[in-house]
Amino acid sequence: MNHTIQCAHNCKEFCTAIEAATQREKDAILQYGTLRDQCDYPDVKHILNELIIQRQRSISLLMETKALIKTKFEVLDQVRQGFEMV
């Protein structure tokens, strides 16, 4: 899967790079889950579960970053609006 990310640097609540990364992590979780469910060997099941947990942590980090970006843009908007009022 080769997607080109168009970064507009004014994405506010919707960062295409974060959205693409999040989707890739979700896809990986689904793939690992399918492989885990098809596997009979406990050690392999364990490592696939660990990989799923790591991907879930990555999604959490991406969501935290997205929230931080949103907050930063909100502050910048407030500053800009403050200057426009003057």
Describe this structure in words.
With 86 residues, this protein is an all-alpha fold. It has one domain (16-80). It contains two helices and no strands. The radius of gyration is 19 Å and the shape is rod-shaped. It starts with 15 loop residues before the first helix and ends with a helix. The model has no long low-confidence stretch (mean pLDDT 86).
Summarize the structure in short.
This protein has one domain.
Tags for this entry?
86 residues; mainly alpha; 2 helices; 78% helix
Instruction: Tell me roughly what share of residues is in helical segments.
Output: over 70%
Distance between the terminal alpha carbons, to the nearest Å? 49 Å
What is the typical, i.e. mean, pLDDT? Answer: 86
Beta strands, count:
0
Helix/strand structural class: mainly alpha
Quick one: overall form? rod-shaped
Instruction: Profile the largest sheet.
Output: none
Q: pLDDT below 50 for ≥5 consecutive residues: which ranges?
A: none
Q: Domains counted in the coordinates: how many?
A: 1
Quote the beta fraction: under 5%
Provide the fold topology:
Layout: H1 16-38, H2 42-85
